[in-house]
Amino acid sequence: MEYTALYRKFRPQNFDEVVGQDHIVKTLINQIESGRITHAYLFCGTRGTGKTSVAKIFAKAVNCLNPIDAGPCNKCSLCMAMNEGRSLNIIEIDAASNNSVDNIREIRDEVIYPPAEGRYKVYIIDEVHMLSIGAFNALLKTLEEPPSHVIFILATTDPQKIPVTILSRCQRFDFKRISNSAMAQAIKSYMLKENVLIDDDAVNYIVRISDGAMRDALSILEQCISYYYGERITFDKVLEISGSVDDSVFFKLTDFLFDLNSSGCMDIIDEIIQNGRDINQFVSELIMHWRNELIAITVDGDSNVLDIGGESVIRYLDQGQRIGSTVLMKLINKFSSLQPQLKYAFNNRILLEITCIKFCNAVESEDLTDLLQKIKSLEKKIDEAAHQSVYVIKKDKADIADIKADSPEPKPKRKIAASEDIQKVIDGWDKVRAKFSLISAGILNFVKPEGLEDKYLYIVCDNDFYYNKVKKIKEELDKKIEETFDKKYDLIIIERKEYEKKKNSVLLNDEIKGEENIEQSIKAIDFDIQID
User: Fold this and answer.
1) Can you tell me the distance from the alpha carbon of 448 to that of 69, in angstroms, rounded to the nearest whole number?
2) What mean pLDDT is predicted for residues 434-439?
3) What is the CA radius of gyration of the chain?
4) Dist CA 232 CA 234 (whole Å)
């Protein structure tokens, strides 16, 4: 038996099998049931979303001898003829190669003849935007007043190129990109029928790089099955076939770009090339990586918007808030302008390397954003290298001298004593985090309870980003802590840097008070000696 490609084998044969286009399917079924079938339709949408498949199902449904719930039965003679491609009632035309006036004139001459069997002759014109102006003009009159037995279905990926005079005579349906969840579910069912074992993360990755096109997903999947025939399809195998790279590479390259480390960027690019990865695919996924980070820090890590797993959201949040939206948008703009150049470049590697080097040497440009980024990077390096100052109180003087410590991260002389109840929260913080959702628990991973004054429980946040997030869930946090430890605590939400200032102030005051007590004791002893 002749082999059939997966995207042809699993082409939907009924409305129930169409994936991700429920709004269109419902409308067409209602039209068939009510008899309100119009003479011209325009199906718009990106590749692989089901335009031609739905057109064929609709053509079968309006001609079926024994329709089932307004859909084709796929068992009568007319349905069987259409499924086997021998029906005279469905005429498919590729406008990309049949776009002249003469081709349309042939259609105009043919439509006057009624179908040999069935109710309608259905003309499916694919990529209709490729027709010439003369061809559109020739089609215009026929499209406006066709015979009652004719239905036109025009399919296109670029409706903007179709004349308004044609658009106004058609009922337009916009096909959406198929959602990741719907596509993943469909692929799993297809693989079950094919008896192919495939991991969930492999399915999710195929769905993600298919960009809402089922035909693209099935083509990638078929290539994986052919290469690893009889084996289980894993995430790494999909990466190998698709020429993609693991997500960790995007995080590493982003860190190198943010740190203006051109040498590190070159190492990453060399690794990609040595592994035979596709540069165009890499840049596309890199831009999507930055988009996910930007969305993560903009919409509070809403995984429904990102359509990715919870653990990945936490990683995006961590790197995204550290880099900032300004730098992320600049990276997206720079590398998006690189994409069209890669299509026609003789050496893609050189273009990618130059773009990374330019970004890492941003101080040479006059762009204010670049300069601010350079300053921020330099400040970070200075902070890491600089010695911290600590205050010491001289025993024989009342003044305080500022001297440099030997270590870059000085430790306090003693820990702040915490009450027994506050210490319970500090020790059992994981119990509190476990009561929250995955996203909130991920945020609380960058938060730590501390004790400073006996009556307060300080919730110390690593930075301003997490401070704002925790402020929004303060009431819920208060309730969860009370439920966990059966105590009512007075919470103070505070940033790490502010908490450190407050803690140093408490330590300093304690030391000053201690020195004053010593001096007073010494004076009292001297006074007693003088009396004696």
Assistant:
1) 60
2) 79
3) 34
4) 6
Q: Determine the residue type at 207.
A: V
What pLDDT sits at residue 376?
63
Give me the mean pLDDT over the 7-20 stretch: 86
- Could you tell me where the DSSP H helices lie in 361-437? 368-385, 420-427, 429-433
**174 within 8 A of 46, measured Cβ to Cβ:** no
Measured from the Cβ of residue 218, the count of other Cβ atoms closer than 10 Å reads 24
Report the pLDDT value the prediction gives residue 199, as an integer from 0 to 100.
86
In order of 129, 265, 324, 363, 406, the CA distances from 369 in angstroms are 42, 20, 12, 10, 36
- CB crowding 52-65: b at 16 or more within 10 Å, else e: bbbbbbbbbbbbbe
Residue 366 has pLDDT above 60, yes or no: no
Nearest Cα neighbor of 380 from 447, 333, 324 is 324
Domains of the chain: 6-174 (3.40.50.300), 180-242 (1.10.8.60), 247-374 (1.20.272.10), 413-508 (3.30.300.180)
Rounded alpha-carbon distances, angstroms, from residue 323 to 254, 366, 415, 434, 467: 9, 21, 33, 28, 17
Residues near 516 by beta carbon (within 8 Å), at least 6 away in sequence: none
Average pLDDT over residues 407-420: 49
Where do we find the tokens 């490729």?
130
Residue 503: the pLDDT is 80
Q: CA 141, CA 137: separation in Å to the nearest integer?
A: 8
Burial 166-191 (b: 16+ CB within 10 A, else e): beebbeebebebbebebbbebbeebb
Closest CA to 71 of 83, 81, 61, 59: 61
Residue 316 φ/ψ, nearest 5 degrees: -65, -40
| pLDDT tens readout for residues 235-260 | 888 877 776 666 778 888 888 888 88
The token duo for 347 is 């050496």
Which pLDDT does position 75 carry in this prediction? 86
**What is the Cα–Cα distance from 373 to 388, expressed in whole angstroms?**
24
pLDDT of residue 239: 78
Judge contact between 139 and 166, C-beta under 8 A.
yes
43 secondary structure, DSSP code: E
Q: Which tokens sit at 455?
A: 């009556």
